[in-house]
């Protein structure tokens, strides 16, 4: 059990390091191809921060662990929405300045509602069990394709609040080497995490769902946490919100879509509580930002988010 815990932690290290090297190499290659910096920020970097969740979920889907797949997506989204945005708002009130974010915040809430609809439409699946089927996974991927086109169009807007991405100059051979090494880190790290998280869950009497919603989802959300905290410290609050909201949209449309296309994701009754919490987090963000005069997530509202996550975590671990 101790060895599994060590390998699990090592898996997270590989995962985060692999994602970092993947982004560094990919941005270098993209710059060599004369891709605009704003497009790199909205695509390569965005993919990079979601790469840990993608890696873990693809591994879980290949192994047929639907419970881990859904738990990681929902757990990451709830952590992003309640903890990361909550902490950022407590450091500095988050004011939504861009019309882009006005669109993405409602879209992230609608994505959360879509998970509820797809997970509970057993009559469409022709059975009496709840699952996200392969065909529904393809629908999610179609939504992701539309969202990706939208983000590329946004990048052409000079008023778009995209952050300037620092590009490390590398020889092409070096960039390809680090790209492949980063991918290897994601694959190996993701495999270590899924295998050992399931073993630890069985050893201590917890379900894969609870381990996925807590340890795994928090670990894979570390890149979003680091990126958003760095942005808010620079007072780039629109970017801090955009990172979280964009990541949540990525998680549902791309990661859940790809995972359920690989293997249908079975949804048990307990998961609907997590789906509800995800919807509530998205709804509260929408209400807090758009109900006031200043289009702002204030410090006390950030505190409410963090307290809600504490209550949800207590429910998972003790009830």
TrEMBL record:
GO CC annotations on file: plasma membrane
Keyword terms, alphabetized: Membrane, Transmembrane, Transmembrane helix
Localisation: Membrane
GO molecular function terms listed in the Swiss-Prot or TrEMBL record: calcium channel activity; calcium, potassium:sodium antiporter activity
Membrane topology: Multi-pass membrane protein
Keyword Transmembrane helix: yes
Xref: Pfam families: Na_Ca_ex
Record-level GO BP terms: intracellular calcium ion homeostasis
Transmembrane segments: 69-92, 99-118, 138-155, 176-199, 244-266, 272-290, 302-318
The Sodium/calcium exchanger membrane region domain, residue ranges: 4-152, 175-317
NCBIfam families listed in its UniProt record: calcium/sodium antiporter
The name this protein goes by in its record: Cation:H+ antiporter
Lineage: Bacteria, Pseudomonadati, Bacteroidota, Cytophagia, Cytophagales
């Amino acid at each position: 059990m101790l060895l599994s815990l060590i390998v699990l932690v090592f898996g997270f290290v590989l995962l985060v390091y692999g994602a970092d090297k993947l982004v560094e190499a990919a941005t270098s290659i993209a710059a060599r191809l004369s891709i605009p910096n704003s497009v790199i920020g909205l695509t390569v970097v965005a993919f990079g921060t979601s790469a840990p969740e993608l890696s873990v979920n693809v591994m879980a889907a290949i192994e047929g662990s639907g419970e881990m797949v859904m738990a990681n997506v929902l757990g990451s989204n709830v952590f992003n929405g309640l903890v990361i945005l909550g902490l950022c708002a407590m450091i500095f009130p988050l004011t939504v300045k861009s019309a882009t974010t006005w669109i993405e915040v409602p879209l992230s809430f609608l994505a959360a509602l879509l998970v509820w609809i797809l997970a509970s439409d057993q009559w469409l699946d022709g059975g009496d069990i709840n699952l996200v089927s392969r065909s529904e996974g393809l629908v999610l991927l179609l939504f992701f394709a539309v969202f990706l086109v939208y983000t590329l169009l946004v990048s052409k807007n000079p008023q778009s609040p995209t952050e300037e991405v620092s590009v490390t100059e590398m020889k092409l051979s070096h960039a390809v080497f680090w790209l492949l090494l980063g991918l290897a880190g994601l694959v190996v790290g993701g495999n270590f995490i899924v295998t050992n998280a399931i073993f630890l869950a069985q050893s201590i009497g917890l379900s894969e769902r609870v381990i996925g919603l807590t340890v795994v989802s928090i670990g894979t959300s570390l890149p979003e946490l680091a990126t958003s905290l760095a942005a808010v410290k620079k007072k780039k609050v629109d970017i801090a919100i955009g990172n979280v909201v964009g990541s949540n949209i990525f998680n549902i449309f791309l990661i859940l879509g790809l995972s359920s296309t690989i293997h249908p994701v079975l949804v048990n009754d307990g998961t609907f509580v997590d789906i509800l919490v995800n919807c509530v987090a998205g709804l509260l963000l929408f209400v807090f930002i758009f109900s006031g005069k200043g289009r702002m997530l204030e410090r006390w509202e950030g505190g409410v988010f963090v307290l809600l996550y504490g209550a949800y975590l207590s429910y998972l671990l003790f009830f």
